[in-house]
Design a protein that fits this description.
homodimer, alpha+beta, Rossmann fold, Dna Ligase, domain 1, 3 domains, 4-stranded parallel β-sheet, purine biosynthesis (chains A, B), N5-carboxyaminoimidazole ribonucleotide synthase (chains A, B)
Amino acid sequence: MRPPPGRSAPAADRPPAETPRVASRLVAVLRVGVVGGGQLARMMIPPAIELGIVIRVLAEDEGMAAQIAATQVGDYRDLDTVLAFAETVDVVTFDHEHVPQTVLRELVARGVAVHPGPDALQYAQDKIRMREGLTALGVPVPDWAAVTDAAGLQAFLDDHGGAAVVKTARGGYDGKGVRVVRSASDVEDWFAALDEDGRGGALLVEELVSFRRELAQLVARRPSGETTLWPVVETVQQDGVCAEVFAPAPGAAERLAEMAARIGLQIAEGLGVTGVLAVELFETDDDRILVNELAMRPHNSGHWSIDGSTTSQFEQHLRAVLDLPLGATGVREPWAVMINVLGGPETATLDERLPLALADQPEAKVHLYGKSPRPGRKIGHVTVTGDDLDDVTYRARAAAAFFRD
Amino acid sequence: MRPPPGRSAPAADRPPAETPRVASRLVAVLRVGVVGGGQLARMMIPPAIELGIVIRVLAEDEGMAAQIAATQVGDYRDLDTVLAFAETVDVVTFDHEHVPQTVLRELVARGVAVHPGPDALQYAQDKIRMREGLTALGVPVPDWAAVTDAAGLQAFLDDHGGAAVVKTARGGYDGKGVRVVRSASDVEDWFAALDEDGRGGALLVEELVSFRRELAQLVARRPSGETTLWPVVETVQQDGVCAEVFAPAPGAAERLAEMAARIGLQIAEGLGVTGVLAVELFETDDDRILVNELAMRPHNSGHWSIDGSTTSQFEQHLRAVLDLPLGATGVREPWAVMINVLGGPETATLDERLPLALADQPEAKVHLYGKSPRPGRKIGHVTVTGDDLDDVTYRARAAAAFFRD
């Protein structure tokens, strides 16, 4: 169609009457700095944008998952690097728990708001500290001991039916740094490493808990004290890595949910956690709840909340570390099922598989982290919400399956 | 708490065992380029991040709403600028409808995927073209004419009871470029401007429709043809600017909703729209539906969908322009109410008001666009969803009120 005679041609070269432009004067805004550029930092970016919060990321490397907000690339173990980054924001928080205590404490000493702070983070950084802290709070944990040599470990094994779980105090994640042992010689190499280290370290040994399933309780807490809880969820691990999450935990009795909530609050308050705290729990065969692990940051067991809760763990973490009032944490539908995408397809690229998944499951919320697939690596997740647990589970698994070979 | 004797001090200076790093090899990813850096571009960023889509913005200026994704600042009327930007992405789409046809057509000629394309966009860029296109499709519109002088306008007024609405063909938005007239002399200045323009342009004159309320029907359409619809919504304008949106339109009879849907689909398909199309409608006092305006992009009447629909208009727009399968568009709760934040508080900054709004309404989803407040300017919006329309409306208005004086 051509314009009829007597009508102007589209005045393409004229500027629009009033192009909206932002005035150059500064607006007071809240600025969050995230140390670490992984997918947890990445997933904080959408709620920051929605809430009008400026988010900056100190990434370990170029091209990481959170790169769109990465204003700096640098070493989080270097005090000057982290200090310079902290000066550009109102509060520093984390994608991971690896920032050294020395750096954290220097930040605090210089008046930087750090959430969670070093006093809390130490319990997430060192599993022996964690067990000590929880034991001091009276929170139910598996039997445990800190052992420095084979004799100590053997004594624990002898007291616990000849089997136990040994964990390195630091550096473990996703099942790494964890072994089931039946003899002290099973962790000979770890004891040797402790000796070489020359710092007189110890390994954590725990009773081998006979559990029915694993649960996770997420809590958020503001520095000024307000807390919120999401419903306790069931997590399914495969090879030590979170594979599936069911929210709320199916068939959880009210007593169980209340116990998990009480434990979550007790830890958040007792250890002075700020931001999101994830408490991994065992539901034992004899109906007890024991604390397995802690994470003081958004956690894989809470990814369902992006699509399944009024306030996601990522939005809540931002609100909490900024000491903003926390949001409602009710579920948006009776069930949410989250399936991790691990490894990725080997015979196709993600962008070849994405259309297949979207076409097959139009209700599924597909989340990809911008990471290159590698065996066992978490590169995304899928969440489906709805009224019928079986249906929701089927659809979430079906969508996720397109990203595997 | 200090570590007990015999335990290593936290080994803060050691790198974590396996810091996850993204391999430097390139991953195949989908890349969307958005021309224009306003809040519509801003609100495309969160779903792009969630879906693993790379989003780049060609912004008009520094510090605009979409700045976190602004890889370039430049003039969208300059062909070379837009071409260079287009080379960095897989598809070009828009935050506004102001990119000149000459630029759009040159992009297409050089093989750039442009959605919506120039053939469709012309109907959103020029209101007289729009009326011609809709009339040719047989879509119900108010009586209209293109008038080039006072005599032509007077003839239209005489035929329509002495009152009409006159609109400039281009450059109007949010009530600008629209006047209710009772005499040809009411738009004398506009006719004078047409004469000075020397291009033989015309003004659009339309019957003054007596309407019960305004509605909006949003549609998304992929280049390969798939379409989805959100439920028709009611929009409330104040001073020509969208103030409130109720989704779905309260009390909308099935017949009405079907009519709106049919009109939306007919326009999307008939004009070859790709991406999101917003059709603004009048529900007349005599139970007709007439098309008022079109927008070929995400639209204020669809902001509720971020929190209220399984797939938001922003996610759907990205999926549509990339020709990805479209997502489900059902409502997540029976009602969603969206209230615009216009102007902003004059006696406080936004970050002073944000905590008050969040504390008062923990269920409210507050969206701020990172723009400095200015009278009448859209700087954010609030959405609340729920079962009870009155309650949802009250809560959304209450939260939004904190951002006004």
